[in-house]
Structure formats: C-alpha cells, structure tokens
Design a protein that fits this description.
The chain is α/β, with parallel strands linked by helices. It is 46% helix and 13% strand. The strands form 2 sheets. A 5-stranded parallel sheet has the order 3-2-1-6-7, with helices on both faces. A two-stranded antiparallel ribbon has the order 4-5. Helix 2 (39-50) packs antiparallel against helix 3, helix 3 (52-72) packs antiparallel against helix 4 (74-86) and helix 5 packs parallel to helix 8. The longest helix has 23 residues, at 244-266.
C-alpha cells in the first residue's frame, strides 16, 4: 500500500499517556504550530536579518510564490521563499534573527494538542521543509526537541553569506522527509509520527503510529510559560506577526508614519499616548 493511500487517524484519537520512553517525529507548520504557513517567519528573517526593502520584495513576490506552491510543487514554493529571504544575507545575521526574534512569534503559535503529545515523548525530532538554521533554536530551546531534520541552505565559504539556494538533496518535502528519517534512524524507526498534510504521509508511514493534525486556525494555543524556556523579548522591527495582510498594512503605513515622525521632531512636539504607537517603530 502506498504512503499516500494510507489512512491516519486524527491526533484527538491518540492516547498521550505512557509515551515517556518513545520517540516522536513531528512536522512543524500546521502540526506543532497552528498556522500552516511559514510566510510570516520568512518575512521576519527578510526584515530582521535583511531590510524592509527585502521584506517588500518578498511581499510583492508572494502571489507568485503561492501559485508555485499550490499549482506547481510545494518544493518550488519554498525554494522561492528561501531565495528571496536569504540570498546575500550573512549566515551570522540569519542565526541571530532566528535566535533573538523568531522564538516569540513561534511561541505564540504552538498548538496545544500536538504539544501535549510531543512534550510527553522521550526523544523528539522535528522534520520540516523550513531551513534548519531558521527553526533549530526555537525547537531545541523552547520545544525541547533533540534534533531538527530540515532543509539545509548553501553558504559561500569565502563570504559567509547565503547563496539563496539549498544543499542536496533539496527542500525537505514528501519523499525527502522519508529519506531523512531513514537516514537518521536506520532500523530503529520512531514510535510516533504526526503531520498535517498529505506530503507528510511519506515519513509518517515509517512510524509505528501516525496521526494527522487537522487544520484549525482557532485551535488552543499553549501558554508560553508552559514551554521549556521563558520567552525573552528582544527589540525588533515588527510587533505583529507579519502575515501577508499585516505586512501589506505595515508597508502602506511606513511613508505616513515617517512623515508624522519628522513633523514631531521638527516642531519638537511631545508625542501623545494616542499617536505614539503610530509614529514609533
């Protein structure tokens, strides 16, 4: 029977207790996280490790990325996200943004059902199409994960900058997730596998038990104090999670906010509580 024809019950049917000696392999977006889209996190990297211009380029390219993801291949859509967000950035800047800025946005999106199962297992592996450098700090420090099997990005050894391309075997989706699990575990395969989409079936089939996490934007979030480490708020350019809608509104407002800020500085006006949030970054 092929991996794609298999039926996996919903995670609500999974018994959480008695898992303290078991190994779990879990997808990230849409599984451990409520949101199925990784776009906001790539936007954070583009802005925090790059610039607002890079973020604007990513936003303008988002319709093309969506069409590629939906109608060509999941892999191509993610490759475009990586190229636009990462190309030319110093790997050190990407690492810093991934460690200092991304965790507070990830932490606000952790799904309770999946976390309850994931946290009760002894060995925790996250297998994701996202770049390892982007998700590993959060997975290890805040979710207690032992290993991240993710997409590896190319770095120019001479300049220390990302080329925007990915290393072989490519973006970790579908059969490549399966191959990564086989390479990591050999014959001692995970006890549990959880995912949220059909392309996750390939690696879930290898596990003794597999469960699907159905899409639910209103799913219960895990209180941040329940995660493995406390969230430390670092300064950053963005306060709201940069979904395409939030990112568009932010870029549309930037010129007006800048003009208001200049007026305030030129006339030496003390900002009132009512407008300070519109003129401050």
């Amino acid at each position: 029977m092929s991996a794609r024809s298999r039926y996996f019950p919903p995670i609500s049917h999974c018994n959480v207790s008695g898992r303290d000696s078991q190994t779990i392999a879990a997808d990230l977006d849409g599984t451990l996280l409520i949101s199925r889209s990784s776009f906001p996190y790539f936007m954070l990297i583009a802005i925090e490790a790059g610039s607002f211009l890079r973020g604007l380029a990513l936003l303008l390219a988002s319709p093309v990325i969506l069409v590629a993801y939906k109608f060509v291949s999941e892999s191509l859509g993610i490759q475009l996200l990586i190229f636009i967000s990462f190309a030319g950035l110093k790997i050190r800047e990407i690492e810093l943004a991934s460690r200092a800025v991304l965790p507070r946005f990830y932490a606000a999106d952790v799904r309770s059902e999946s976390w309850n199962l994931f946290s009760n297992c002894r060995n925790k592996i996250v297998v994701t199409a996202n770049p390892t450098v982007m998700v590993e700090p959060f997975v290890k420090d805040f979710l207690g994960g032992d290993k991240v099997l993710g997409t590896e990005i190319e770095v120019n050894p001479r300049t220390g900058r990302s080329t925007g391309f990915v290393k072989n075997p490519g973006v970790l989706v579908g059969p490549l997730k399966r191959s990564a699990i086989l390479k990591e575990f050999d014959d001692n395969l995970p006890d549990l596998g959880i995912g949220d989409r059909e392309s996750d079936h390939d690696f879930m089939e290898l596990c003794t038990e597999g469960y699907m996490v159905p899409p639910d934007p209103s799913a219960t979030q895990v209180p941040q104090e329940c995660l493995r480490s406390p969230i430390i708020i670092h300064s950053g350019c963005l306060l709201l999670r940069p979904t395409p809608r939030n990112a568009l509104l932010t870029f549309l407002w930037l010129p007006f906010g800048f003009i208001l800020h200049l007026i305030q500085v030129y006339f030496n006006l003390p900002p009132s509580n009512g407008i300070i949030r519109y003129t401050s970054g």
